[in-house]
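Sequence in, structure out.
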Amino acid sequence: MPLELELCPGRWVGGNHPCFIIAEIGQNHQGDMDVAKRMIRMAKECGADCAKFQKSELEHKFNRRALERPYTCKHSWGKTYGEHKRYLEFSHDQYRELQKYAEEIGIFFTASGMDEMAVEFLDELNVPFFKVGSGDTNNFPYLEKTAKKGRPMVISSGMQSMDTMKQVYNIVKPINPDFCILQCTSAYPLLPEDVNLRVITEYQKAFPDIPIGYSGHEMGIMVSVAAVALGAKVLERHVTLDKTWKGSDHQASLEPNELAELVKAVRLIEKALGSPVKQLLPCEVACNEKLGKSVVAKVRIPEGTVLTMDMLTVKVGEPKGYPPEGIANLIGKKVKVNIEEDDTVTEEAIENLSKKIKS
């Protein structure tokens, strides 16, 4: 059984708890607080568990040359990459306002800390858990400092190898046991052949004492639902109000109707996964009574006859008789009454018969 952890106050993940669904708003808010609040409410109304943003302290995430390089693509919000990122970056006070809004409407709120100073701010903000984006997963000093904060962690694994993820586990686990790892491929949008959902199973084998999840950038919801069927306990998907909006993440994001459908599908799949115990269920009794087969006499069998296999067959019988999986138990047994051809063979008609097998 994978480790269960309290990712948010009162909300556990792992084990038999429902999949924790993160609506990754990221920077799809277009730098607009009203849009950001609309997206938080949308996430809540669609049934997601958490609305998540991306927080950067730009001078700590990028060096000077990276911020100064020209950025003139169709998704740009400024002449340089720095201007573009500053346009999309909310201030500390704006984050506090968004957090308060999320609390008011009843949805968990957090952000990926995209650099060490951003993590410091998020810790001060008292977010329930830290999300580690794929770009920082092999940033081991960052990981260690974040783990030492003591908050639960959700760690994506895009662009990483299994060897790196084993190092991540070995760094974080002794410091902070409350974390999970998400299978992720860092491409936007992500093609199905590059998803590699089987990595979820490999992570479950390699890290059996932590929950495993999935962060998806593919189009649609089918792959993400399949991830949950494979055992993903945390599911993250980018969301948008309009896929046609300016910005490189919108195309690989889910619009409100898709997010609502995803949540509905995940909850349905969780019900369908059900129990690993195979048994006759109450809902099957009617069908079993109508169509379940019984042992039937192939010929007339007089009282006192010792049964042989060539005397018996299997049919849908009325009344129901001895279950066919136990037919071998009848061989060599003596019948206590006459059994007419094509009549069902009942337990009561056989001498010294052990208790009837459950059908």
